[in-house]
Design goal:
It is built from eight helices and three strands; from the N terminus they run βαααααβαβαα. With 155 residues, the protein is mainly α. It has a three-stranded parallel β-sheet, with helices on both faces.
Length: 155
Amino acid sequence: MIFTGTGPKGAQGLSDLPKILAATAGLTAQETFLKIGFTSSKSSLAAGEAAYQRIQRRQVDRDRPLSQQSRIAEVTAVLGWAQSYANAFKELEGLSQPALIVQGEFDVAVPVSNAVKMSEHLPNAELAIFPNAGHAALFQNPQQFLRLTSKFLSE
């Protein structure tokens, strides 16, 4: 299993999603991608711009833009997942599959503390925290992410 930018059910910070999304009101898709996915540092924003441009260059087999109905369903699902759940870590302890958890150090949407806690409760977990990265850490560090995931999947 490979986890990125996530946390267990009831994860700290997920209930702040409406506030995070409200801060993007009126922004373009690119500005929203940068605000939620990257830190405010020049290097993070430059990596975010590069990632956005890479995504836009893809012309074949592109995903369709999310409809308003899909966006509402996504937020509803995340807010449901954000509800406090006392057995979350106990359930993780029962998973035996190897797990790679990749998280941005400054993920606003899902704070890094969730990844740390997940790694402590998943018996076969490896944790990689990308410095100066936000929710889109894998887009900010695509080569590092590729090396980590390739190594993980080959083991």
